[in-house]
Amino acid sequence: MLYRKVVLAIADGLGDRPNPILGHKTPLEYASTPNLDRLAAKGITGMMDLIASGIPVGTDMGHLILFGYEPQNYPGRGPIEALGIGMDVRPGDIVFRCNFATVDEHGVVVDRRAGRIREGTDKIADAINGIIVHGVTVYFQPATEHRAVLILRGDGLSDQVSDSDPKAPNDGSPFLRIEPLDLTKEAQKTALVLNSFLLKAHSILKDHSVNAERISQGKLPANFILTRGAGKMTELEPITDKLNIKGCCIAGESTVLGVARMAGFQTVTHSSMTGNMDTNIQLKAKLATESLAENDMILVHLKAPDLQGHDNEPFQKAKAIEMFDEMIGLIEKGIPEDVYLAIAADHSTPCEIGEHTGDPVPVLISGPSIRKDRVTEFNEMDCAYGGLGHLTGNDFVRTLHGFMGRVKKQGN
Ligand SMILES: [Zn+2]
């Protein structure tokens, strides 16, 4: 078998719809993309539905598929967030997304985000990390700004429990007691453990030095943990083990890094990979080409197009796409001729909608001995005529794995 390598570049939220502000072009059609168009001309293109026609997916689900998993392998947002901030997550762990919050003496949530706390969350988290409640160990780590992740590790736990987060926008609602969502003793135990922990955390946090200082400065204290979205980490074989490959992911966004770690990919990130328009595409391209020496599959991610789609900014989205094109040009220059360069997106984020939609996204594969089609421009309209046709995310990724020589023959 001839083994080959792939660099897969992902433009987050790339897909869009013709926009009147752009003369009824999509941002990808409107943008100047000489590198993507050249690759389309010498490669094979197509249109991809991540799961199936019309189904919108989140960045987490989209990347789960692009890393090579089936949609039903989705472990929930909590485990992905935890992996994304570098926590050790094991099968059976119950993982929650959290906010640092402010409650008053009656348990009323004064602010769901503790005055959008940014500093000192590591010290606050340290004070409650590693506490053991009823034989269950609680791991707690801060994420960005007011966000955090909580893991319950122990025997006989369940993810069938409710949230403590009332989610109401600071309207005088109290925090909620965790309730079991089914009749199992596992759900009851999990609710008991988490309720005990949250009260214990409150008693520690209300007198914490970081909070005393915040109060003296007129800021809201982070004296409570609101939990939501319980998820159970499942036993998932890393994709790298399944294919017997080495993989590397270059990204700034923790969600993408989390999925990459789950899939067994080494992760590379840097503070200059901001996830925004000022992100360091030169560094991303350099790392993508350098890491090819040690790896068989490289995923390199750019967040900016998605953010501009959410902000309903078609001109800015076109600019973000031009940045992506520039990054692709740098990568193409840096890779050997026998390496495949593939382009995809995790979903569409049309500017007129400002949210993810189920519109298919354009894809392309360029590289050695490719059955090139007649498409010469990379966009949502032209790629619909491409040689890959209309395929699912699983089909697209399997096609890449096939080019890599990593798909097992069926039959004899
Ligand atoms: Zn998005």
Mind explaining what this structure looks like?
The protein has 412 residues and is an alpha/beta fold. The protein folds into two domains: 237 residues, Alkaline Phosphatase, subunit A (3-Layer(aba) Sandwich); 151 residues, no CATH class. It is built from 13 helices and 14 strands. The longest helix is centred in the middle third of the chain and has 21 residues. The two termini are 15 Å apart. The model has no long low-confidence stretch (mean pLDDT 96). The structure holds zinc ion. Zinc ion binds next to α11.
Task: Give the helices and strands, then pairings.
Layout: E1 6-11, H1 27-30, H2 34-42, E2 44-49, H3 59-66, H4 77-84, E3 94-103, E4 109-111, H5 121-128, E5 131-133, E6 136-142, E7 147-153, H6 185-205, H7 209-216, E8 224-232, H8 239-243, E9 247-250, H9 254-262, E10 266-268, H10 281-290, E11 297-302, H11 304-310, H12 314-334, E12 340-344, E13 361-366, E14 389-392, H13 393-403
Parallel strand pairs: 1-11, 1-12, 2-14, 9-10, 9-11
Antiparallel strand pairs: 2-13, 3-4, 3-7, 3-8, 5-6, 6-7, 12-13
Helix pairs in contact: 3-9, 4-9, 10-12, 11-12
Task: Write a brief caption for the model.
This protein is an alpha/beta fold and 412 residues long.
